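Issue 218. Parser rejects a valid record. Input:
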Amino acid sequence: MMLEGLFQSPTSVLLLGTILGLLILHLLYSSFSSQEKEQEPPGPRPLPLFGNLLQLDLNRPDKTLYEFSKKYGSVFTVYFGSSKVVVLAGFKTVKEALVNYSEEFGDREIAPIFYDLNKGHGIIFANGESWKELRRFSLTTLRDFGMGKRLAEEKILEECHYLIQMFDQHKGKPFDTLRPLNYATSNIISSIVYGSRFDYDDHLFQTLVKRANQTIRITGSATVQLYNNFPRLFSWVKNRQQILSNMEAAARDIKELVKNLKDTLNPHICRGLVDCFLVRKQKEEASSVMETHFSDTNMIFTVANLFSAGTDTTATTLRWALLLMAKYPHIQEKVHEELKRVVGSRQVRVDDRKNLPYIDAVIHETQRVANIVPMSLPHKTSQDVIFQGYFIRKGTAVFPLLTSVLHDESEWESPNTFNPSHFLDEEGKFVKRDAFMPFSAGRRMCLGEGLAKMELFLFFTAILQRFRLTPPPGVTEDELDLSPGLGFVVNPLPHELCALSREEL
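Output the parser choked on:
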C-alpha cells in the first residue's frame, strides 16, 4: 500500500523515471567502458593514487616489469602513480613497434625531470619540427666530422695514447677506471662538437665530466622517480635540486665555450658542430627565416645532450668490459691471443675488426649483458593505434623494455650468462644477431651508434693489447661483483682493478 501511494504523485513518477534513466546510462557506460578496456593491454590492478608503484623495485623497475611480462604478455599496462604506461616486452614485439610502427610510437615521453632540464629543447627530450630539424642537422654534422669514418678513427687513436698514459700512471696498482674512461670518451665528443680536445688536467673539463656523470646517476634515483610520478608533492627532493643546479652550471660553461668559438668563427672553415650551428644560425637570420630552430637555447641543449650521451654510455660500457675481463681471465687471454696473432704490436685499426671475430663477439656480448639503458628512453604514441590487437590511445607513454630484448629467452641460448659464443658460429666467425638492440631501434635510435661502436672497439683493444686486467690484491675473480649499480645509465658497482703492463709480465 505504501509503494502504491508513493508512485501516485507526478513528482514520485518523475523521480522514479530519473533514477531508472540514470541506471540505464550507468549500465550502458559500464558496458562501453568494459568493452574499451577489453581492447586495451592487460596488466596488474593499480591502487588509487599509487598505481602499481608499490609493486615495483624503484631502483631497478625493469626487473619487475620483465617479471610482469611473463604473466601479462608482451604488451601490458602499468600505472606509475596516476600515469598510464604501456610496456613492450620481447624482441619481436619491441622491434615491430619501433620499426614497423615507427611513426605511431615515434614521439618522446618527457618525464617532469627531463622537462625541467630541457624545456622541450635539444635533440633527446624533444618532439615536433624542432626535434626533427635538429636531429637531422646533428646526424649530418656528426657524419661530416667523421662519425664512423677515418677522421673519427684518427681522433680515437690519438685519444688511446692519452688513455694508455693514464693507465700507466698507476703502475699496476688498483684504481677506479671511471675517471680515465670518462675523460677519453668525453674528449671524442668534445673534439667533434667543439673542434678540439681537452687536457685531462683541465679544471673546466674535469668539472663538465663530473657534473654530467652525477646528473645521469642521480636521475635514476628512487627520489627522482617519486618526483616524476608526483611532481607537485616531491619537487623539493634534494636530488632534483642538485640536477637543476648542475644544468644551470653546465649551461653557463657551454655559453662561455660557445662564446670563444663565436669570437674566432670562420664561416668557411667549421672546426666542429658548434661552428656549423653558428653558421646555420647566421644564414637563417640573414634570410629572415620566420621560425628558425637554430636558436641559442637549442644550441646549448643540443651540445649538452650530445656531451652527456656521448660520454656516459660508451664509458660505462667500457667499464663493464674491463670488469668482465678481470672476472673471466680465460676470456681475457683469448682476446689477447687473438690480438697478438692477428695484429701483433702495431696499433689496432678499425679495418682489423673483420679479422678479430672473437674480440668483436666479446664487445657485443658485453653490451648485451651490461644492458646499460634497460628501459630505453620512454616513447609516446603520436596517434591512436591498434597494436597486436590492443588499442593504445594517442599520448600514452610507452616503455620499450630493452632488458626483455637483450635477455629474451627465445633469442639467446644462455641469456643470463656472459657468453661471447652468442655471436660466433661453429667455425668461430662473427655472426650478427637480430635481437642485439642496445642502441634501441627506429626513428629514435641512438644517433651516435656508429661513433660508439668505433670507440668501443678501438679503446677496448688498445687497453687489452697493452695490459692484463686483474682484481686488486687479496680479491679473487669470484669476488668481483657484477651486480648493477643505480642510475639512469647502469654502471657497475664501485670497484678497482689493476692494469698490469704486459711488457713487464
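Fixed in the parser; the record now loads. The mean pLDDT is 89.
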